[in-house]
């Protein structure tokens, strides 16, 4: 019941759908671009890249320096540009231009870990999956949904304990909640819409307003 209430209340604040894309390839590249980068910058860099190149074959044939110039604002562009080019090449050459729609195959792509793969499954394919990043890991532990040490353990526990109908919303809601309110340092417990469900809020944490 707790998780139902958490999802309901966060869904009222953060209407779902912001991160979905009807194009799995764009979703995959955007998620790679988002690594260690703020959302606004990710959107902007994705927009610039896809306004110039729209398909795996176009990116695979592009010059690395041209990709770098388009995604520069996303940071780590010297690492991300060749990675994006190689991902595009593999998708074009080995998967006939189609992004794989399963975890096992997505994990074979360079720079794609479980979090990125799960984001693609949820946002690019509309599948039920849970993408666990630092926000999801931290907040799940603060809320007592899990008691884990690593994002990998958190992912396993959330799959075990959360009803499937909620899986695809967990990442989007908790990431936005983690950026706005339940921040890593100084969570705004005084403004929290689920403080009554949180065993670690109020006096136990610093930064209460
Ligand atoms: S009460 Fe504080 S720690 Fe708990 S979920 Fe809300 S913001 Fe996070």
Description:
By secondary structure, the protein is an all-alpha fold. The protein folds into 2 domains: 2-15 and 131-204, Helix-hairpin-Helix base-excision DNA repair enzymes (C-terminal) (Endonuclease Iii, domain 2, Orthogonal Bundle), CATH 1.10.1670; 24-124, Endonuclease III, domain 1 (Orthogonal Bundle), CATH 1.10.340. The protein is built from 11 helices and no strands. The chain has helices at residues 2-13, 24-33, 39-52, 56-61, 64-71, 77-94, 103-106, 114-124, 134-142, 151-161, 167-180. Helix 2 packs antiparallel against helix 8 (114-124), helix 5 crosses helix 6 (77-94) and helix 9 packs across helix 10 (151-161). The longest helix is centred in the middle third of the chain and has 18 residues, at 77-94. The two termini are 28 Å apart. The model has no long low-confidence stretch (mean pLDDT 92). It binds iron/sulfur cluster.
Class computed from helices, strands and strand pairing: mainly alpha
The fraction of residues assigned to DSSP E strands is: under 5%
Low-confidence stretches: none
Strand/helix succession: HHHHHHHHHHH
Largest sheet at a glance? none
CATH architecture descriptor of the largest domain = Orthogonal Bundle
What name goes with the CATH superfamily of the largest domain? Hypothetical protein, domain 2
Distance N to C terminus: 28 Å
Q: Write down the domain tally.
A: 2
Total of DSSP H or I helical runs spanning 4+ residues: 11
CATH topology of the largest domain: Endonuclease III, domain 1
> What level of helicity do the residues show?
55-70%
């Amino acid at each position: 019941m707790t998780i139902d209430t958490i999802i309901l209340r966060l869904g009222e604040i953060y209407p779902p759908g912001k991160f979905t894309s009807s194009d799995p390839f764009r979703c995959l590249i955007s998620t790679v671009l988002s690594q260690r980068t703020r959302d606004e910058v990710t959107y902007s860099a994705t927009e610039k890249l896809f306004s110039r190149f729209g398909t795996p074959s176009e990116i695979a044939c592009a010059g690395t320096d041209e990709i770098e110039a388009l995604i520069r604002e996303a940071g780590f562009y010297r690492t991300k540009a060749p990675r994006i080019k190689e991902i595009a090449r593999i998708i074009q050459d080995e998967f006939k231009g189609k992004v794989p729609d399963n975890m096992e195959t997505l994990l074979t792509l360079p720079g794609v870990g479980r979090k990125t793969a799960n984001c693609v499954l949820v946002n690019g394919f509309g599948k039920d999956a849970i993408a666990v990043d630092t926000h999801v890991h931290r907040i799940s532990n603060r809320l007592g949904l899990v008691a884990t040490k690593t994002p990998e353990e958190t992912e396993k526990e959330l799959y075990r304990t959360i009803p499937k109908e909620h899986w695809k919303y967990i990442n989007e809601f908790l990431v936005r909640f983690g950026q706005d309110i339940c921040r890593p340092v100084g969570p705004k417990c005084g403004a929290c819409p689920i403080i009554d469900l949180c065993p670690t809020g109020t006096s136990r944490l610093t930064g209460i307003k």
